[in-house]
């Protein structure tokens, strides 16, 4: 990837030398995309904003819409969903203004993702279905696979695991046909999630490992962290608590590295479960409420599996501890910063 960055930076320099503003903006956008892939969100933000400024100066609304979309996705990655929503709504307005059906589909899909992360599942479904309809109309197979996958996420959250499995299998089939490696890894990971929920841990492990292998191959750090976290859950259910700890800690380290605060909060729930297994109940309570405070402060919800584990663990800890003990360590957890919570999680 460093070689690719060098090539892109040379291209940017060449565009600057000849005064090609459109080319400069495109190069900055490409460098921003590469920075996202490498988990350098601060640098990506800078590139996208510089690209937008140039596109605005030359009156390129299509380019401005693309920049707003990129900035929205970047805000989502960092857990700032309200800011992300503003960017995507602005992108949607530009796309409608220029009559870009594909742009409208992309913006609606991203607004659906925000609604999903905020727990507004019916609104998310509406956005996803609108985006899917446009992509079918345009014959956009990759987009169709993406939104079958996203709709699978909705029905999975609503407890319809067989329908979710069908959506994920259909999206995987299309992604294999078109060679979409990132998409294949996502579909495999979610199929693993269905198997995990249904108690088929061996099949879940197989899907998660296959997903992780692809994500490592393509350098998808965010995806690697998710797959590692899922493998940690399988290891815990299989009784291998040390391996579970290793997977969750590796996942947490990556999520911290790339600034994925929602992901960090979700992983803290699984590390709290390991504290419980080791009878470190006070620390488990602190981690639970540090994670919950983080999620609430961002105006989002835990992913469906983390939410279930959190609720069940909370009930068990309430039974194990006195009211006074529980309240004391809950308050301590709520006062912790996310950094302090991570330090506690890694100290077990």
Distance between the termini: 35 Å
Morphology call: globular
| Beta-strand content bin | under 5%
Overall structural class, as computed from helix and strand content, comes to mainly alpha
The percent of residues in helical segments reads over 70%
Look at the structure and give the mean pLDDT.
94
Poorly predicted segments: none
Number of strands: 0
Order of helices and strands: HHHHHHHHHHHHHHHHHH
Number of helices: 18
The major beta sheet can be summarized as:
none
Radius of gyration: 21 Å
For this entry, give a set of tags.
single chain; 348 residues; mainly alpha; 18 helices; 86% helix; 0% strand
Structure description:
With 348 residues, this protein is mainly α. 86% of the residues lie in helices and 0% in strands. The chain has 18 helices and no strands. Helix 10 runs parallel beside helix 12 and helix 14 runs parallel beside helix 16. The protein is globular, with a radius of gyration of 21 Å. The model has no long low-confidence stretch (mean pLDDT 94).
Question: Helices, strands, pairings?
Answer:
Layout: H1 2-18, H2 21-37, H3 41-58, H4 61-77, H5 81-98, H6 101-117, H7 121-138, H8 141-157, H9 161-178, H10 181-197, H11 201-218, H12 221-237, H13 241-258, H14 261-277, H15 281-297, H16 304-320, H17 323-335, H18 338-346
Helix pairs in contact: 1-2, 2-3, 2-4, 3-4, 4-5, 4-6, 5-6, 6-7, 7-8, 8-9, 8-10, 9-10, 10-11, 10-12, 11-12, 12-13, 12-14, 13-14, 14-15, 14-16, 14-18, 15-16, 15-17, 15-18
């Amino acid at each position: 990837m460093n070689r690719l960055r060098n090539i892109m930076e040379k291209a940017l320099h060449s565009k600057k030398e000849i005064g090609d503003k459109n080319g400069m903006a495109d190069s900055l956008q490409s460098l921003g995309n590469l920075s996202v892939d490498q988990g350098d969100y601060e640098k990506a933000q800078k590139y996208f904003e510089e690209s937008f400024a140039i596109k605005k100066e030359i009156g390129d609304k299509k380019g401005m819409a693309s920049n707003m979309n990129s900035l929205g996705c970047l805000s989502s990655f960092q857990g700032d969903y309200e800011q992300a929503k503003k960017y995507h709504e602005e992108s949607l307005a530009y796309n409608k203004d220029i009559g870009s059906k594909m742009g409208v589909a992309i913006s609606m899909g991203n607004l659906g993702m925000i609604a999903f992360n905020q727990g507004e599942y019916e609104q998310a479904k509406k956005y996803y279905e609108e985006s899917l309809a446009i992509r079918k109309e345009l014959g956009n197979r990759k987009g169709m696979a993406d939104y079958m996958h996203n709709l699978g996420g909705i029905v999975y959250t609503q407890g319809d695991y067989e329908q979710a499995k069908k959506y994920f299998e259909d999206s995987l089939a299309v992604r294999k046909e078109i060679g979409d490696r990132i998409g294949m890894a996502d579909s495999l990971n979610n199929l693993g999630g269905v198997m995990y929920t249904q108690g088929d841990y061996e099949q879940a492990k197989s899907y998660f490992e296959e997903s992780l292998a692809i994500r490592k191959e393509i350098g998808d750090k965010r995806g690697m962290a998710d797959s590692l976290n899922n493998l940690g859950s399988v290891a815990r259910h299989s009784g291998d608590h040390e391996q579970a700890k290793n997977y969750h800690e590796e996942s947490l380290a990556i999520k911290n590295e790339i600034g994925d605060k929602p992901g960090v909060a979700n992983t803290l729930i699984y590390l709290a479960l390991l504290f419980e297994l080791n009878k470190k109940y006070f620390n488990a309570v602190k981690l639970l409420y540090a994670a919950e405070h983080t999620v609430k402060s961002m105006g989002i919800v835990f992913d469906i599996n983390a939410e279930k584990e959190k609720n069940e663990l909370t009930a068990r800890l309430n039974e194990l501890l006195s009211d006074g003990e529980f309240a004391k360590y809950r308050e301590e957890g709520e006062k912790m910063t996310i950094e302090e919570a991570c330090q506690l999680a890694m100290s077990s």
